[in-house]
Amino acid sequence: MKITVLDAATLGADVSMEVFSPFGEVTVYETTSPDEVALHAAGAEVLLLNKVRLNAENLRDCENLRLICVAATGFDNIDLDYCRLRGIAVCNVVGYSTQSVAQLTVAMALSLMTNLPAFDAHVRSGAYTANGIPNCLTPTYHEIAGKTFGIVGFGNIGRQVGLVARALGCRVLVNKRTPVEGWECVSLEELCRESDILSIHTPLNDSTRNLIDRAHIAMMKPNAIVINVARGAVTDEQALADALLEGRLGGLGVDVYSAEPMSAEHPFYPIRERGNVCFTPHMAWGAYETRVRLLGEMAENISSFLSGGTRNRVDLK
Length: 317
Known about the structure:
With about 325 residues, the chain is an alpha/beta fold. The chain contains eleven helices and twelve strands. The strands form two sheets. A seven-stranded parallel beta sheet has the order 8-7-6-9-10-11-12, sandwiched between helices. It has a five-stranded parallel beta sheet with strand order 2-1-3-4-5, sandwiched between helices. Helix 4 (about 100-115) crosses helix 7 (about 155-165). The radius of gyration is 22 Å and the shape is globular.
């Protein structure tokens, strides 16, 4: 069996693709540009990828293709309708990044609440040594205990964030389509009005695109912190940038963007150096342990497919 990895570089150089070798011949491409997809995918029976977009145009000549394995939970980069038409199976991976994404979410919240980079810079710059004062309490920072932590989307990651927020002494509000026993579930509007920290953990689809829009942002407290580690397009990015610049938002933590990497024209680019933002390069999912787990899950998907199973098949839904 011929297995091709299209964008290994997005999975990190410290993990090995050898986990796929028992299934056949493995060809690894570090990157695949849109113009190279058809060439790199030619002859493959199994395609493994993370961010590469696959559609009718670049899969048309892949006559041997039987299975596509996405190294992610989201699969909006795959034309499922075309795959169904061709009888190509598509598998994603679920639940692999819960701890890693929750960890970064809470780290962002704590950093923004504590103004941690400012205090770190005070010491690094030599100002702490030079000014002769034994401490520094500027800028003002606040305890997270007693604050309201709002969570939009309450799957595995949202729930883990909620558990950590509770452990830190926060009141946790949840916005989810169906109520969750043991949690305080509210409308999105109430969550926006009440939250000191608002964290987004919902998938991107037609119903969630631009979910946190200008109107919802206007409902938020002027010192509220918004954290998005879901998908960039679930928010109105320009509206978030405007609110931050105009002092209508206290802080912004973002790991995902509507176009990646963030371009110089992106609304967040001009505010990237402000002290009340924390922007990371779509790395929340990528702790080492998480990526090892991810590759293992993809191997399990291949094994299931070859034995006639339907493990993580998203084309059947």
